[in-house]
Structures are given as structure tokens and as C-alpha cells.
Specification:
By secondary structure, the protein is of the alpha/beta class. It is built from 10 helices and 7 strands. It has a 5-stranded parallel β-sheet with strand order 2-3-4-6-5, with helices on both faces. It has a two-stranded antiparallel ribbon with strand order 1-7.
Length: 292
């Protein structure tokens, strides 16, 4: 990819990320109940880069055994996936805005693969997605399938011990078709992350035999450059699994969320006035990036 192609790709993905962020904010306004909003906004850039470029996601080939897979282990951010899948043509917006977390409707607060096409794993019980992804990656290796398993976890979720069992096994057995993405927005529902644990995430993964990359996950240029390095599917068993520590801001793109304590917008609703402010903030942010 030359310089011009890279610039065009970044601009396209930035525009799509802004669009998805607006839909997330609109959902927080129209759903009529409290939903997770800060985390979906922080993870939007990485998710958009995957679904619109690097995952090779094809709504017409959801059962392709050779497909790359993405697991949102921090399943409480399911509204991010719902909006992306809707934009890719699998659903209608009314499914999200009118059916979110409504009994009898498929779109629960946490994604359920039994009811939602395009979801690879039911998640929400934190600490389960990475072990599931590890199992899928091992199965792909056994079946000699040249595809990757991407798993996004939250920084708070890494406090679950089941993650570290999977991390230890993947590093020990060089499961090099597994990529863990840590959405490191440094805030959970009850506290800011540094109030609880203090450690270097990249160094911890490296100690278990992983390759680590640390990026600004809200800088699409850095996101693109990192995924570009992963385009060749590994077929050997001598390289390492990869962790991408994606340093992000909770509520990214929406000024009144970014300026608040990190835990404040873990859950929330947006009234009409706030929605207008959020849309304006996202538009201004996109314009500033375009002007650089």
C-alpha cells in the first residue's frame, strides 16, 4: 500500500468510524433505557478497521469455514457490533433502536450468537472470549485453515484469571493465528483502572510468550499500520500470538464524555440536547482530522 492509498484508506475508515459513533449515540438517545456507551465509543476505530478492511467480513459468507473471526469478549459493548452489522446490511436500524434489550427481541445488552447472525460467540460473562478464541485458533491450526481469530477484551476484564490461563497456553504453544486486542480505556463501571491494579499490560503478555504492539487505538493511522503488519497469515508454529494494546479514551469522539471521569459514561442515556452536542462533537473531530 503506497502513501496515497494509505491516506485514502485512513480517511475512509475515519469517516465510517464517525458514522458508527453517531449511530451509537443515537441509540443511546432512542432506546429509552440505560445502555453501555463509553466503551463502544472507545473501541469503534479498531472495530471499524477490522470489519471494513482487515477481517474480510462478508455478510454473504457467514458460514465460510475459512473466514477470519472476531470475538467481542467485552460483550457489554454489543451495541457497537449491532450498529456495524446493521450498516453492513444484516439488519435494519429499527431492530436496534426499538428492539435493544427488549424481551423477545434478539438484541440483548450482551450479544447471543443463537439469535444474531454475524456474531461468532455469545459473550458478556467477562473472561470467556479469549479462551473461546484460543480454542477456535487451535482448531484452525489442526484443520490447517489459514485464518485468524481476533478477540477484543477490556482492560478491566483482564482481571479475570481465565484470560491469563489462555494467555499462558497460547504463548507456550505459539498459537500464532490468535490476536488479542486490549481496549485499554482505563475505566470500568465503578472506578478508574489505576485505582485497582498497576501493571504493564504489554510486558505481562510478553512474559507469557506473546508479541506485543502498543498503539493509540483512537488514531486510525496507527490502527491501520498495526493491522497491515498482520496481513500475512502465519502457517508455521514457530512465531508467537500477538497482543495489540489499544490505548483509548472512554467515550472517544464525544467531548462531554471524554472530559468526564472515565467511569461516568460506562453506562448512560443521552437526551435530545446531549445528542445534538454529541453529533456536533463527532463532526468537529472528524473535520479536525481531515484538516491535518
Amino acid at each position: 500500500m503506497n502513501t496515497e492509498e494509505r491516506a485514502e484508506l485512513i480517511e475512509s475508515l475515519q469517516s465510517k468510524a464517525a458514522y458508527i459513533r453517531k449511530r451509537i449515540c443515537e441509540a443511546a438517545n432512542r432506546i429509552g433505557t440505560t445502555m453501555h456507551v463509553g466503551g463502544p465509543l472507545s473501541a469503534t476505530d479498531v472495530a471499524v478497521a477490522l470489519y471494513y478492511k482487515y477481517l474480510g467480513f462478508d455478510p454473504e459468507r457467514l458460514d465460510d469455514p475459512d473466514r477470519n473471526k472476531f470475538i467481542l469478549s467485552k460483550g457489554h459493548n454489543g451495541v457497537l457490533l449491532y450498529n456495524i452489522l446493521t450498516d453492513l446490511g444484516l439488519y435494519d436500524w429499527t431492530h436496534i433502536f426499538e428492539g435493544y434489550n427488549v424481551p423477545g427481541q434478539p438484541f440483548g445488552m450482551h450479544p447471543n450468537r443463537k439469535y444474531i447472525r454475524g456474531i461468532e460467540a455469545s459473550t458478556g460473562s467477562l473472561g470467556h472470549g479469549l479462551p473461546l478464541g484460543l480454542g477456535m485458533a487451535i482448531a484452525n491450526r489442526i484443520d490447517q485453515r489459514a485464518s485468524r481469530i481476533y478477540v477484543m477484551v477490556g482492560d478491566g476484564e483482564l482481571q479475570e484469571g481465565s484470560n491469563w490461563e489462555a494467555i499462558m497456553y497460547a504463548g507456550s504453544h505459539q498459537i500464532n493465528n490468535l490476536v488479542c486486542i486490549v481496549d485499554n480505556n482505563r475505566g470500568s463501571v465503578a472506578f478508574e483502572y489505576d485505582e485497582n491494579l498497576h501493571y504493564d499490560i504489554s510486558a505481562a503478555f510478553e512474559a507469557f510468550g506473546w508479541e506485543a504492539a502498543e498503539i493509540n487505538g483512537n488514531d486510525m493511522g496507527q490502527v491501520v499500520d498495526t493491522f497491515e503488519k498482520l496481513t500475512a497469515i502465519p502457517v508455521d508454529t514457530t512465531s508467537k500470538p500477538t497482543v495489540i494494546v489499544s490505548n483509548t479514551l472512554k467515550g472517544y469522539g464525544v467531548d462531554f464524555m471524554m472530559d468526564a471521569p472515565r467511569w461516568k459514561w460506562h453506562l448512560g442515556m443521552i437526551n435530545d440536547e446531549r445528542l445534538a452536542q454529541a453529533i456536533d462533537s463527532i463532526d468537529r473531530g472528524l473535520a479536525e482530522k481531515a484538516a491535518r
